[in-house]
């Protein structure tokens, strides 16, 4: 049969469609003549010379089916969403522990472990047999890591679920880590390190974040050739033992299955899996809050294109301003051709093919405001100025006529695609469950979006976006740049080759370089250097059973006050730069002699909050004395020994006189991590204290006046 009649049949339809896109609205030919065919939905008669002016049909209401939730006998949460439309099953196993759990000096360990589990197989399923069996079944199994989780996935036909599920369970629970697979993966990861700067955009994304967070922050540490060389099979086995297990795990399954039967299969496969050894990964959750604008230049001679990135601290999804900031993101740069950044930078000026701006919220992390653009070197400065102008104009002027309504329509219509497929419904529900959010969160978010007013969006933007505090990061060949970059702000140079420890130690001083790494990890785990730079004082309530509670006020660079918490007029100790007083038997304060005063000042300098304040201010020389042992030495020669626990927090501190403190549970107070349980090792045995903290409390000058002047 000839295919030629088909175009003839379609031709009138094609002409009708083209006519509907023309510049003239349809009209009747003559009075009494044939009427124009009705449009599929009412379109206002108009011309649309730009994509952002095309009207958008309202979105019909839609309520997707949610998965069933159950728990295995060991606490693993299971989400099941049957979908008989295709004879396939997809399963995802989420485990708590990813790239941010990499030990210092072995960056890449989490990704290395996941790859070795899949490629190395297990004793029951060695690599060659494993690959052959999956190929025979047409099934897929893979493992991947993210910042805070490792994910194992399978995909197979409905009838093959039992054997493929058994293979996956054996791999994640009993991996083998054979030497040949370990070395093969190492070679591949080393090659990836060598090629990581080949793609200009992702390289700029990575280095801009490193410049923003700081090289010591565990959220931006990257695998290096040296760290990969330091990883061996026993490290992979240890990471698996510490990070792979049932505690906090989640199983999500979608596809053609019977829920009751599948629940029994999952219980048989994973129900007796024990908990992993390590607790949750402890990393800072706050983003740095820059005090002023920084312009950072990563010079890449010969680069054909310049990459521009703006960064600023953002919000979490739970923040009450998030709906307004999400709305603003669509207006500024995440709403496609209707957004201001795309309209200005691409459509009107032709400076870039891709550009955008908006907030990227975190579930538990604070998130960031990000803007990006890729342009030729000769327009790098112009594009940077125009990006700033877009932000500044929006903050100054607000929405233009009709812009708010068009943005709302685009945003709400796009949200349909969050749940138009069962896989997407399951994925979003798994994200909510995993991060401790209610399953109705997205519906609540959408309702908030619908109720927003223009002034609410603008007010939120003005609270969270300050162009004068942006990190402006440019990567490219500065020899090709147009002039004027220094007019945007003082220009810092950036080296992507800088070691993770910041480069102050260098290859000739490995203990110091390692110490810089540990010091950076310590600060990052306790809230970050920027957060501790902002801390000038702490106050703590100290409790021990059977004795009155104390209050201790510590002020950088070394003032210290101890008094009864419930009788603050009764001061027990006062340390100043020029003198030290302590309560005598009669309760009055007596000034100490030089030796006793020096010992008291030395003890104050060993208080953990002051140590972290001084470390953030660069007041120590640092040196590694063991895998997690750090030595600090100040200008006066005072030496402190610290031990970091598995989370990078200070687990123990030893004063110059040998006094030893152990720190237990921690809590986040004022953006920094502080211990709530402190044990002092004394000759008669350990003595435990409970601490509650305030950061940067109100201070009164009279507290630190000499007793005679009060």
Give the C-alpha Rg. Answer: 31 Å
Q: Give the biggest beta sheet.
A: 13 strands, antiparallel
The top level CATH class name of the largest domain = Alpha Beta
Give the uncertain stretches in residue-range form.
1-41, 500-508
Through-space gap between termini: 108 Å
CATH architecture term of the largest domain: 2-Layer Sandwich
Helix content class: 25-40%
CATH-assigned homologous superfamily of the largest domain: Metalloenzyme, LuxS/M16 peptidase-like
Number of structural units classed as domains: 3
Shape by Cα distribution? globular
Got a strand count?
27
Q: By helix and strand content, what is the structural category? A: alpha+beta
Please explain how this structure is put together.
The protein is an alpha+beta fold and 710 residues long. It has 3 domains: 68-270, 2-Layer Sandwich (Cytochrome Bc1 Complex, Chain A, domain 1), CATH 3.30.830; 294-494, Cytochrome Bc1 Complex, Chain A, domain 1, CATH 3.30.830; 510-709, outer membrane lipoprotein receptor (LolB), chain A (Clam), CATH 2.50.20.10. The protein contains 21 helices and 27 strands. β24 and β25 (672-675) form a beta hairpin. α11 (340-348) runs antiparallel to α12. The longest helix has 18 residues, at 380-397. Residues 1-41 and 500-508 have low confidence and may be disordered.
Summarize the structure.
The protein is of the alpha+beta class.
List the helices and strands and how they pair.
Layout: H1 5-20, E1 68-71, E2 77-82, E3 88-96, H2 109-120, H3 127-137, E4 140-145, E5 149-157, H4 161-173, H5 179-195, H6 200-213, H7 225-229, H8 233-243, E6 250-255, H9 259-270, E7 294-299, E8 305-313, H10 322-334, H11 340-348, E9 355-360, E10 368-376, H12 380-397, H13 403-414, H14 422-434, H15 441-451, H16 454-464, E11 471-476, H17 485-488, E12 491-494, H18 510-525, H19 529-533, E13 537-543, E14 550-555, E15 559-564, E16 571-575, E17 580-583, E18 589-591, H20 594-605, H21 608-616, E19 621-626, E20 629-633, E21 639-644, E22 650-654, E23 660-663, E24 666-669, E25 672-675, E26 677-682, E27 685-695
Parallel strand pairs: 2-6, 7-11, 7-12
Antiparallel strand pairs: 1-2, 3-5, 3-6, 4-5, 8-10, 8-11, 9-10, 13-14, 13-27, 14-15, 15-16, 16-17, 17-18, 19-20, 20-21, 21-22, 22-23, 23-26, 24-25, 26-27
Helix pairs in contact: 2-5, 2-8, 4-9, 10-15, 10-16, 11-12
